[in-house]
Structure formats: C-alpha cells, structure tokens
Amino acid sequence: MAQASGAYLVGDYAGALLHAERAAAAGEARGATLAGHIKLHGLDGEPDDRAAVRWFTRAAERGEPDALIALSRLAQAERGGLSAWQAGDYLDRAAQTGDARAALEYGLYLMESGDPARASDTLDWLRLSAESGYAQAYSEYAIALDQWVHGPHDPARALDWYERGGLAGDPHAALQAGLLYLSGEAGAQDQAHGAELVEMAAEMNLPAAMGQTALLYFQGEGVPADPARAVSWAQAGARAGDAESQFLLAYALATGEGAAVNRRDAYLWVLRAGQPGQGSLAEDSDRAQLEAALERVLDPAVAAQVREQAILTAADF
C-alpha cells in the first residue's frame, strides 16, 4: 500500500493503480478504495463509474468507511448502476464503523430527508461526530439543536457547539455564537465575549459579520464606541455586498459620524442597500427615510446620475 500511496502522491496514477490493485488482492481495503478513486476520476484514463463501484464495493465489504461514503454519494447521484435508495444504507454502515466523518454524513443525510421519526437518530449521529472531535460537525450539530425544524430548538445547548465551530474556523458559527452571547437568548449574556466572536467572524471575511461588527462599534455594545472603526468595518462589508454594511456606511457618510460627510456617496450606498437580493433592506423604514432625506438635499441631476450608477453597478455586489 505504501508503494501505491507514493506513486499517487507524485502523479504516477498508472503505477498507483497497479500497486493499489495488488494491495486489494492481498486483502488491504485501502488499496481497493484508492483504486476506486482512480477509476472514478479517470486518473488513469477515462472515468469509469462502474469500475469505481466495483472497487469501492470490495473495500466496503471490509468495512472501509471512505469507500462506503463514496458509494453513498454515487448512489445519491444514481451513477455506476446504483440507486438513490441505497445511499442511506451505505452511510448507515459507514457510521456504524465509528468513523466521525461518516457519522456526520449520515446525520446530514437523515436531516435532509426530513423524516421527523428519525429526528432522534439524526441528532445522535451529529452529536457522536461532534463529540469525537470532528470539527466540521460542531456547527452542523449546533444548527440541528437550534434551528432545524425537527430539532429541540434549544439555543442554550447549541451555544457551546457554535462557539467551538467558530474557534475551529467557521465564521457563520462564530457569528451565531456571538449574537447569542450578545442577546442572552441562550441564557448566558456576555456582551464583551459576544462582540469578540462577532468581530472574529468579520476577520474571517464573513460580510454579514462585518456589518454586525460595524453596528457594535457605532453603538458601543460589548466594545468601546469607535465610529472610525465602525466605518472601516462598514466599508469592508459594503464592498463585499452586505446590505446592512451598505446602509451603515451610507449613514456615516450622510451624518459625518466616523467619516467625512459625502452625501453623494451616501446616496449611492443607501440605494445599493435597497437593491434586490439576499439580505436586501428594500423594505427597511430607516433605510427608506435616509434615502428620502438624501434625495431632498442633493441636486436632482446629481441624484439621477447616482441612481444610474447604482443600477449599472448592481451586478458587482
């Protein structure tokens, strides 16, 4: 098997396949799995789903979780002669081996199936994956505990897993943990720690977290009020397409709080915040009021130019 792995790493896929097949013949499940991947991706020539399925099946017979996961994905796509109904069985077998990644995959599969009768099993598999230290499971388990329609809707239980997910590098989990600490919704209000987690998510380049961080610095919530720092985060989020950030930047440019007054640019950003799209503030009354106020003070010709610019650059955000 070492020869197969070595050949694979240097790009000698024909050699890797030869050695993988020999390892499989000697009873090495990982050899059959590697041969399956080579065939699946056509690394030795043309992709061959059916050959891949044969090799993965050989490895799966020896309880190899990676092969079982591969078979489940092929089954879901109905490739290689497999049927979608087989996917769950493959993932069940993979999870039963104790593999943390397989437990996560099976939990997500059950979650997606939407069967309320399997809700307890779903949570158990996600919990087992998370408790085994598989970082990718942290935020998934938190979401299941907190937001899943068939879950317990228990933010208090979810909070620790959101935070672990954030510390493991998931910005969405860090943001959610931060918001829960800030609001006290999970029963453990800590505004300073919440603000720290929200800014961590912003530093991981999550646009929505940039807007939230800007708001915290404008309001002095969990952090000392710092309008200049707020504007810096609002600028970053606005350029990344976050509507909340765009509105906050428009507000700063209109009022001079943390930035030099520039009503033309303020009008441009408030228009962008109201453009259609995910997270749009089109129906937000504060945004609408700022837009109307800026229209009253701008020269009509300038306002028309800015409206045209906002439309022409809409696709950039």
From TrEMBL:
It comes from the Bacteria. InterPro entries: Sel1-like (IPR006597), Sel1_AlgK (IPR050767), TPR-like_helical_dom_sf (IPR011990). Transmembrane segments: none annotated. This is Sel1 repeat family protein.
